[in-house]
Specification:
two-stranded parallel sheet; 14 strands; binds D-xylose; binds nickel (II) ion
Length: about 450
């Protein structure tokens, strides 16, 4: 069987990546990700809902602020539309060979902007017809798309929060087209990442006004999306900084507060990116838990940062400790619903072999599969759940229960406190960490 849809194979010499188990020495095989294996009633594929990110995998070429491109794309064509189509062929060949059932993209990743707004629209609609044909040919689905309203110089002062109305409206043109394309492609979610929705200095910024404009813009996008039949979830992807100094969607808690302040909480959830959570001074699991507790866990950008670097390194996830803690939250939440685990991650700049893209995804998929298995065993044995329940047991009966149910006032609470006997109880963190290790290493 050919695992490519065009008439040319771009990742030559690499076939479909298969599960071979942990004993295998074949680097181009899965050691833990066994798509059809059932864990707690669902297959791994259904639990993890992996997606490949178009921008890092097929557009980025290793350029960084200190150096030029290091990666050669075998699908590169001089003509921008021919390039877009060849890139789509390569992308779908990759999705099919690696076995990520979903993909995600920005408008600018898949389609050339051209020299006018009209050519932007015409190109995008033509390319998206091509994407639809490739989705149909392969069965790969769109997890989400988004508008790139941060790269072009017109967005240097923001998109929806730009102080110039003309730029806000130009951003709306992109978001409208992206929603049209989303519906055409059967997208399951739609993402807003506000890279330039923030500010560099208060000296030139009316923050109150900018946040109101952002909410107005999101409300209009929501209404338009619903009017054209978009039934999926709108997602906000928090990030504290980079490229702007202060981003309005700083972290999960800030984003959820914003959505509730402006009445958007019923249509929007969060897309939590691991490296963004750590940049905000949290753990990945913390931001997932904040979302879960508010019913706002939508989807995940599955990557990892570097604890020595204070920026978004977007590495492929390999830290099984982190993936296990993340999967614990996700499983307890009841899964990701229409969301998934999108590898918003890139190979290092000097990982220049074509197979490195496969190896990077294999590592990420295996790490999450391993985390899923361990987390599921921990939940099955109820070891953490029992410990935590016991820790809060004083709220399950007597006066504690009355407090939890709102049946006490401060005077009665204080009166109880006057006679209460306080017995010191250990938090047992080391015991629990050792227990976690025994599951991870067992
Ligand atoms: C950048 C973001 C971006 C979003 C989509 O830091 O992670 O890639 O996921 O615009
Ligand atoms: Ni990132
Ligand atoms: Ni992201």
């Amino acid at each position: 069987m050919n695992y490519f849809v065009g008439d040319q194979e771009y990742f030559k010499g690499i076939g479909k990546i298969e599960f071979e188990g942990k004993g295998s020495k074949n680097p181009l095989s899965f050691k833990y990700y066994d798509a059809k294996k059932k864990i707690a009633g669902k297959t791994m594929e259904e639990h993890l809902r992996f997606a490949t990110a178009y921008w890092h995998s097929f557009c980025a070429d290793g350029t960084d602020p200190f150096g030029s491109a290091t990666m050669v794309h075998p699908y590169h064509k001089a003509d921008p539309m021919a390039n877009a189509m060849a890139k789509a062929d390569a992308a779908f060949e990759f999705f099919t060979k690696i076995g990520t059932p979903f993909y995600c993209f920005h408008d600018a990743d898949v389609s050339p902007e051209g020299d006018s707004a009209a050519s932007y629209e015409a190109n995008f609609h033509k390319v998206s017809d091509g994407l639809l044909a490739r989705q149909k040919a392969t069965g790969v689905k769109l997890l989400w798309n988004t508008a790139n309203v941060f790269t072009h110089p017109r967005y240097m002062n923001g998109a929806a929060t730009n102080p110039d109305f003309a730029v806000v409206a130009r951003a709306a043109l992109q978001v409208k087209n992206c929603l049209d394309v989303n519906v055409k492609l059967g997208g399951q979610n739609y993402v807003f990442w506000g890279g330039r929705e923030g500010y560099m200095t208060l000296l030139n910024t009316d923050m109150k006004r900018e946040r109101e404009h952002l909410a107005r813009f999101l409300t209009m996008a929501r209404d338009y999306g619903r009017s054209i039949g978009f039934k999926g979830t709108f997602l906000i992807e928090p990030k504290p900084m980079e490229p702007t100094k202060h981003q309005y969607d700083f972290d999960a808690a800030t984003t959820i507060g914003f959505l509730k302040e402006f009445g958007l909480q019923d249509d929007f959830k969060c897309n939590i990116e691991a490296n963004h959570a750590t940049l905000a001074g949290h753990t990945f699991a913390h931001d997932l838990q904040v979302c879960s507790d508010s019913g706002m866990l939508g989807s995940v950008d599955a990557n990892q940062g570097d604890s020595q670097n204070g920026w978004d390194t977007d590495e492929f996830p390999t830290n099984v400790y982190e993936t296990t803690l993340a999967m614990l939250v996700i499983l307890r939440h009841g899964g990701l619903g229409s969301g998934g685990l999108n590898f918003d991650a890139k190979r290092r700049r000097n990982s220049t072999d074509l197979e490195d893209l496969f190896l990077a995804h294999i590592g990420g998929m295996d790490s999450f599969a391993y985390g899923l298995e361990v987390a599921s065993r921990i939940l099955e044995d109820k070891v953490l759940a029992n410990f935590v329940a016991e820790r809060y047991a004083s709220f399950d009966s007597g006066e504690g229960k009355k407090f939890a149910q709102g049946a006490m006032d401060l005077s009665s609470l204080a009166a109880y406190g006057k006679g209460a006997t306080i017995i010191q109880k250990s938090g047992k963190q080391e015991y629990l960490q050792n227990l976690l290790n025994s599951y991870l290493l067992g």
